[in-house]
Automatic annotation (TrEMBL):
InterPro entries xrefs: NDUFAF7 (IPR003788), NDUFAF7_sf (IPR038375), SAM-dependent_MTases_sf (IPR029063)
Alphabetical keyword list: Methyltransferase, Transferase
GO BP term, example: methylation
GO molecular-function terms, A-Z: protein-arginine omega-N symmetric methyltransferase activity
Originating species: Acetobacter oryzoeni
Protein name: Class I SAM-dependent methyltransferase
Length: 342
């Protein structure tokens, strides 16, 4: 039988939010992992080109918000702005750049990275962005948002709480997932309420104002369930409940649930495609070869290795998924060959 709830136990999402807030506020920047923009400049350039096409599909509004959620060191946005400034000067002049970031440490790094291009405005939440046409980018943003976990046992459903580096089970009602999937016996179900709030907000916003959002993250686009909570400490897998604030806590993104919520709110959903397929359609290999032909032999090898790492199925190509949310009246955004899931 599950133990009674100890007085100091925290719900898992509260524990995860507190631990990650401390981690991102105090640890060296992205010291435990490397993200796609840090692997190759081509990644950010392709997303800059993606944003340019979306802006053109909007009718080239004279003012548009280009925002990034979870900008890391600012590398992705800097690479995107470099390409936009060079190849789409009209778009560059229309831009108002905003960043969703809570860590003062990360904000300082982003300020330095973007200084040659813009002076961005920072927000703690996507919902705080000003009104108007919006293009939002989010790479490995959703995976760090806190999750709740529910466990089905012979005595019914229970929610996981945390105390003294261990789980405690508390009886609860069966979780209600927005896509209405059937939950099998002996199941662990994860629910990321902040991510669902983001999807709901964007769906409602894009139903009323022109815009599109692109999310790239590791996760699944199916009815899968199970425990995906994980931690990285000193660049190695770690026990998620130990040494709170000393490790980066993440969980797989449930793109199926996000799509259901965004559609219910009035947005249009595209994907989720695999990252490899998406980047190849955008021109990952062609742009890499352009750079490689102007590079030294050693630099060219690094560029091609980076492209392989981003796109190969056995690397990041299938582990990461790409989903777009957009206003219903806009043309299909680049990279989504199958069109919208409706």
């Amino acid at each position: 039988m599950p133990s009674p709830l100890p007085p100091k136990a925290e719900r898992l999402d509260i524990f995860m939010a507190r631990a990650n807030a401390r981690y991102y506020a105090t640890k060296p920047l992205l010291s435990d992992f490397i993200t796609a923009p840090e692997i190759s400049q081509v990644f950010g350039e392709l997303l800059g080109a993606w944003a340019t096409t979306v802006w053109q599909n909007m009718g080239c509004p004279a003012q548009v918000i280009l925002a990034e959620a979870g900008p890391g060191r600012g590398t992705l946005m800097a690479d995107a702005l470099r390409l936009i400034t060079r190849c789409a000067p009209d778009f560059a002049r229309a831009l108002d750049v905003h960043l969703i970031e809570t860590s003062p440490l990360m904000r300082q790094a982003q300020k330095q990275a973007l200084a040659p291009y813009v002076h961005p405005t920072w927000h703690d939440r996507i919902e705080n962005l000003p009104s108007g046409p919006l293009i939002l980018l989010g790479n490995e943003f959703l995976d760090a948002l806190p999750i709740r976990q529910f466990v089905q046992t012979p005595s019914g459903w229970h929610e996981r709480y945390v105390m003294d580096e261990a789980f405690h089970l508390v009886p609860c009602h069966a979780p209600a997932l927005p896509d209405g999937r059937n939950l099998e016996p002996d199941t662990i179900v994860e629910l990321c309420e902040p991510a669902l709030e983001v999807a709901r907000y964007l769906g409602q916003r894009f139903a009323a104002q022109p815009g599109a959002a692109l999310f790239i993250d590791y996760g699944h686009h199916s009815t899968l369930t199970g425990d995906s909570l994980q931690a990285l400490r000193h660049a190695c897998p770690a026990q998620p409940l130990k040494a709170a604030g000393e490790a980066d806590l993440t969980a797989h993104v449930d793109f199926t649930a996000l799509a259901a919520v965004a559609q219910q709110a009035g947005g249009h959903v595209y994907g989720a495609e695999t990252q490899g397929a998406f980047l190849r359609v955008l021109g990952l290999m062609e742009r890499t070869e352009q750079l490689a032909t102007r590079a030294t032999t050693e630099e060219a090898a690094i560029l091609r290795s980076a492209a392989h790492r981003l796109a190969a199925p056995e690397k990041m190509g299938h582990l990461f998924r790409v989903m777009a949310l957009a206003s219903p009246g806009l043309p299909s955004p680049p990279g989504f060959m199958k069109g919208a899931d409706v």
